[in-house]
Amino acid sequence: SQHTSMMERRRMDAALLVVLLVHLTTALEVPLDLPQPPTITHQSPKDYFIDPRENIIIHCEAKGKPHPSFSWTRNGTHFDIDQDPSVSMSPHSGTLDISREKAEHYEGVYQCTARNKHGTAVSNNIVVRQSRSPLWSKENIKPIVVQEGVSLVLPCRPPAGLPPPIIFWMDNFQRLPQSSRVSQSLNGDLYFSNVLREDSRSDYVCYARFPHTQTIQQKQPITVKVLNLDAINDTMAALYNDTDLFSADERKPTFLTPSGPSSSKMVLRGQVLEMECIAEGLPTPEISWTKMSGDFPAKRTSFLHYQKTLRIVNVSESDAGDYRCTARNRFGSVHHTIHVSVKAAPYWISGTPRNLVLAPRENGVLTCRASGIPKPSISWSMNGIPIATELSRKVEDDTIIFTDVQSGSSAVYQCNVSNDYGYLLSNAFVNVLSEPPRVLTPANQVYQVIKNHQALIDCASFGSPIPKITWFKDTRSSTLDGDPYILHNNGTLEIPVAQAQNSGKYTCVARNDLGIYENHVYLEVKGECFYSETIVKQCRYVTNKSVLIKFFCTDCFVYRLVVDSDSLTITDVTENDAGVYTCIRNTTLDHDSASAKLTVVEKPDPPTDLELTDQKRRSVQLTWTPGDEHNSPIQKFLIQYEDLLHNRGHWHNLTEVPGTKTTAHLKLSPYVHYIFRVLALNAVAFSSPSAPSRMYKTEPADENPTDVKGFGTEHNNLVISWKPLSGLQSNGPGLHYRVMWRQKAVDSDWTTVNVANNSEFVVSGSPTFVPYELKVQAVNKYGAGPEPAIALGYSGEDLPLAAPENVQALVLNSTVAEVRWDPVPHKLIRGHLKGYKVYYWRERSLHKHNPHHMEKQILSFSGNHSHGMLPGLHPFSLYSFNVRVYNGKGEGPASPTQQFEMPEGVPGRPTSLSVTNPNLDSLTLEWSPPHDRNGRITGYTLRYQPVNNSNELGPVEELALPANETSVTLFNLKYSTRYKFYLNAKTVRGAGPTISQEAVTVMDEAVASRQVDIATQGWFIGLMCAIALLILILLIICFIQRNKGGKYPVKEKEDAHTDPEFQPMKDDDCTFGEYSDNEDHKPLKGSRTPSNGTVKRDDSDDSLVDYGEGGDGQFNEDGSFIGQYSGKTTSRDVAEGHESSEAPSPINAMNSLNSFV
Question: Which residues form the signal peptide (predicted)?
Answer without folding.
Answer: 1-27
